[in-house]
Give the backbone structure.
Amino acid sequence: MSETIEQKCLSKGVKLTDQRRVIAQVMSESTDHPDVDELYNRVSKIDSKISIATVYRTVKLFEESGILAKHEFKGSKARYEELNEGHHDHLIDIKTGEIIEFVDEEIESLQKKVAEKHGYTLVDHKLELYGVKKK
Amino acid sequence: MSETIEQKCLSKGVKLTDQRRVIAQVMSESTDHPDVDELYNRVSKIDSKISIATVYRTVKLFEESGILAKHEFKGSKARYEELNEGHHDHLIDIKTGEIIEFVDEEIESLQKKVAEKHGYTLVDHKLELYGVKKK
DNA sequence: GTAGATGCAAAGTATTTGCGACAAG
DNA sequence: CTTGTCGCAAATACTTTGCATCTAC
């Protein structure tokens, strides 16, 4: 098991409050990719006094601190997931909305190569595959 | 030179109006990837009576008809570009916002392979590279 | 002639922010 | 103590929509 979100906050100098601890806990326990509304719902069950403004402020802060990753999949709201060492991309089922995570080293290295070819150093990338389940 | 947007509308059964013709013309002449506001500005210079609601309605219609492609690059507004046969992905300069188009067949086929491996048929994908210019 | 398009302003979403009260370090 | 955070409600940004009118086919 790697560092918890709380530990990451400490090591990155992000002040911990009760609200942030609850949000961190909920994100850690989420295996899906909740949007802010959904996250707010889950957080509210633990502490109903936390406002949605705080949830917005916190996910933004965590994102800027490299603790959470924000995804804006096709035409839907922003969704978040915990960022761990293992980078991965997403395959989205366009029928069900299910999200599958995957890693493909070959694609990763080709991306770097493409950027280099155009005189750029690759800093970040986004790869989303949209598909339908084969019968 | 390939089909104009007007021709595409005709072949796809999209009714042509003066407003749509102006929007089509502006998009054809744009070599960048304008957002709705910018498109509205350009369109207004030709016909100042066209409303922004019509611009929104038209880009949506054109997108659904496969005439325009909508992109939602990191944290910015939706941007549009004309869709031609040649599919391509984007390399975005994170310093200047400049957008470079590229095609890499190898990555394309690997994407299909990844989807297949997970039991999916690839329907669509999004690949964005973010980089900084090398000195 | 009729179904669909337009302009306008009002209504929706998603997200951010000003401010006074409050809490972490 | 002091700086940053919180909750609240209002504000903002982007996009959609109801309705009366108009237009392409």
